[in-house]
Amino acid sequence: MISTNEEIVLSVEHIKKKIGKRWIIDDVTFDIRAGEIFGFLGPNGAGKTTTIRMLVDLIKPTDGVIKVCGYDVNRDPERGLKYVGSIVENPEMYTYLTGFENLEHFARMQPGITKARIEEVVETVRLTERIHDKVSTYSLGMRQRLGIAQALLGRPKLLILDEPTNGLDPKGIKEMRAFIKQLASSGMAVFVSSHLLSEIQLLCDRVAIISGGKVLAVGNVNDLIAESSNYIIWDFTPRQLGLQILASNTEVMIVRNVESVLDDSVIANMNKDAVVVQMPETAVPAAVAELTSAGVSVKSVQKVTPTLEQLFLRMTEGEAIDESHSAY
Ligand SMILES: Nc1ncnc2c1ncn2[C@@H]1O[C@H](COP(=O)(O)OP(=O)(O)OP(=O)(O)O)[C@@H](O)[C@H]1O
């Protein structure tokens, strides 16, 4: 789902938040375009909730500007929030009412929401068959979809979803993913925060990774992975000579802690003498030539692309790479 529409719906410009003496958010900048699904990732305490609360004007930034469709959300919330639908901090539902009655209740709080509009959002979230049943009989996935229906009532251009797949079973997660993609393909910008990194990798066009209130990386998921880390698994003999040659190459970093950068399934299939390095893929042919001319027989060279989860762990927990280039 590549965004073809360049219209910036949300722009977050250098926001900061100071609580007490601490800068909880320290210069966070990113934007989201129409039709794009944007993932917001960070470990516990990174500042995700604080940022989301500023996006929907529950709290104000100490510094910086948040604009939705050009309107300042925190200085002109009436206009800025007009284009925002959100599910933040578990939407309140009246479980003794039907789904439809709940939506009617929320519609009364916003001017101009007609019964036809309610029926339209019910159709969008695929709850038509059960919408006149009591919410107490709904599955968690149905309640989440009802929450999204509520968020969609005012025809938002930006949808903010805080952990939308939380608590859902695999089928529910798959349905929610398809559903979010459908909303984005209709031109909506979708902001998703989640702890489920594999889910974000499957769902999002771009992500921001935050930690300690700062953005560590922002960009296309696949580009971030490709730029940050190519792991190359070398199998050669004699091993010690090959290692010495690779370790002296300035473009190569030997990885000591293989478990932290490779999947168990990759490790299980690896020759136990294999050497894992981080290096640009383009430097591989020259390295093969150097090894071969020194009398090292290269049996195999395999590139392994890390998952978003591995990239995330490396960024937020520190490098597992031996920076000294030394051999094992
Ligand atoms: N009102 C507050 N007073 C003091 N500290 C706060 C307040 N709100 C948040 N913090 C601190 O700011 C930091 C960021 O919190 P925040 O809840 O935004 O993180 P988070 O990324 O949402 O974490 P989690 O994934 O655990 O929900 C944390 O260290 C938290 O303790």
From TrEMBL:
Q: Which UniProt keywords apply?
A: ATP-binding, Nucleotide-binding, Transport
List, in alphabetical order, the Gene Ontology terms for molecular function in this entry: ATP binding
- Which InterPro entries did the record assign? AAA+_ATPase (IPR003593), ABC_transporter-like_ATP-bd (IPR003439), ABC_transporter-like_CS (IPR017871), P-loop_NTPase (IPR027417)
Give the highest taxon in the source lineage.
Bacteria
Q: Which residues form a coiled coil?
A: none
Q: Which Pfam families match?
A: ABC_tran
> What SMART domains does UniProt report for this protein, alphabetically?
AAA
Annotated ranges, domain ABC transporter: 10-237
Family per UniProt?
A: Belongs to the ABC transporter superfamily.
Return the protein name.
ABC-2 type transport system ATP-binding protein
Report the source organism: Paenibacillus sediminis
| Organism taxonomic ancestry | Bacteria, Bacillati, Bacillota, Bacilli, Bacillales
